[in-house]
Design goal:
The chain has 371 residues and is of the alpha+beta class. It has two domains: 159 residues, Thermophilic metalloprotease (M29) (Thermophilic metalloprotease-like, 3-Layer(aba) Sandwich), CATH 3.40.1830.10; 205 residues, no CATH class. Helices cover 33% and strands 25% of the residues. It has an eight-stranded antiparallel beta sheet with strand order 13-12-9-6-5-17-18-19. A five-stranded antiparallel beta sheet has the order 7-8-14-15-16, with helices on one face. Helix 4 packs parallel to helix 5. The two termini are 30 Å apart. The mean pLDDT is 95.
């Protein structure tokens, strides 16, 4: 029997996130996803009058393809997948993982080859700027284990957060987007953090369930060379299957000149991927009231109420500071009182303190007002 929560999620993705219309084409990329969920997405797409295409992938198979893969192989994969992506109006990427460390033993060269070919050509050059897209995880037991929760309780949490009232959240975040668009200087302070930069002249994008599920952030980008100071992250992060804790960056004129973590060697290998990897392409403020603690999954962690993330690598086209890179690594800092607190200032005005907004037009974004 089909779980009715799957139907509700499919309706959210088809009717709200991608807003599919009759005659449009949607690519559903399902990675380690139950067939029932993929089938329900197909049914809901057809109900909306759209034509669904489906690609089924498996993380273990993906690892086998990347391990020892050649550039001609990945160029061909990029060509085939880019053709398909170029033919659709929308993209839904549902990504599960039975083992979050499945790609952890790939050589650095294999990661870079995939990023430079398939990921860049298909996703960064086509999917992100040219389709209506939404990506989300699937709550396998491995994901519940990451969150240190039972499978049943985590599944309920997952469906609650993924099908919340994103339209209501979208209205509440408009004043924050407006403030970020109008702001010049930003200052962030907290335990181990004293950071200053400018966001003057760069757009601010509200995220209300149209691109990511779960959602709940407004993002912009720092002026590329403006960042000065230190940033101490306090949420664990995973990149290329490798877990890092206590990531700390020192900035001079926008560049990360010193980087340490519990895996400093790997951290610096990633930051040395290309010239843009040591510069920041995104600054975002998170406020999803249902996401309250990190679970080592960035699509959830970057939306934590009372958090912000500061992202080495590629800037988004919508809020472009000119930084180009094959990496985009969202790393999260929590500023609620339980995690040491902290402050965010725009042009000398205190906007958020200890994870809670303190100016009148932003109070609707505090957890007690969004649930």
């Amino acid at each position: 029997m089909l779980d009715p929560r799957m139907t509700r999620l499919a309706e959210t993705l088809i009717g709200y996130s991608t807003e599919l219309k009759p005659g449009e084409k949607v690519l559903i990329e399902a990675i380690d996803i139950p067939a029932e969920m993929t089938c329900e997405l197909v049914r809901q797409a057809r109900k909306a009058g759209a034509d669904p295409l489906v690609t089924l992938k498996n993380t273990r198979v993906d690892r086998a393809l990347r391990m020892g893969g050649t550039k001609p192989q990945f160029d061909l994969m990029a060509e085939v997948e880019a053709l398909r992506m170029s033919k659709v109006d929308a993209y839904i990427g549902m990504r599960g993982s039975h083992n979050i460390a499945e790609l952890s033993d790939l050589p650095d060269e294999a990661h870079k080859l995939y990023q430079d070919t398939v990921w860049k050509r298909v996703h960064m050059d086509l999917r992100v700027p040219k389709t209506r897209w939404v990506v989300l995880r699937w709550p396998h037991p491995a994901m519940a284990q990451q969150a240190n929760r039972s499978t049943e309780s985590f599944e309920q949490f997952y469906f609650d957060v993924c099908t919340m009232d994103y339209r209501r959240m979208g209205e509440a975040m408009k004043p924050l987007a407006r403030r970020m668009k109008e702001a010049g200087d930003v200052k962030i302070v907290g335990p181990g953090t004293d950071l200053a930069f400018s966001i003057k002249g760069i757009d601010a994008i509200p995220c209300d369930g149209k691109l990511n599920i779960p959602d709940g952030e407004v993002f912009t980008a720092p002026v590329r060379d403006s960042i000065q100071g230190t940033l101490q992250y306090n949420a664990r992060t995973i990149y290329q299957g490798v877990v890092h804790d206590n990531v700390r960056f020192e900035f001079e004129n926008g560049k990360i000149v010193k980087a340490t973590s519990t895996n400093t060697e790997h951290l610096n290998k990633v930051l040395d991927t290309d010239d843009g990897a040591r510069y920041v392409g995104e600054f975002a403020i998170g406020f999803n009231p249902f996401v309250t603690e990190p679970m080592l999954d960035i699509l959830f962690d970057e939306k934590i109420a009372g958090s912000f993330h500061f992202t080495p690598g590629q800037a988004y086209e919508e809020a472009d500071n000119g930084n180009k890179s094959t990496i985009h690594w969202d790393i999260v800092c929590l500023q609620d009182a339980d995690n040491g607190g902290g402050e965010i200032w725009f042009d000398g005005t205190l906007i958020r303190k200890d994870g809670l907004f303190v100016v009148d037009d932003l109070l609707a974004l505090n957890p007690e007002n969004l649930k």
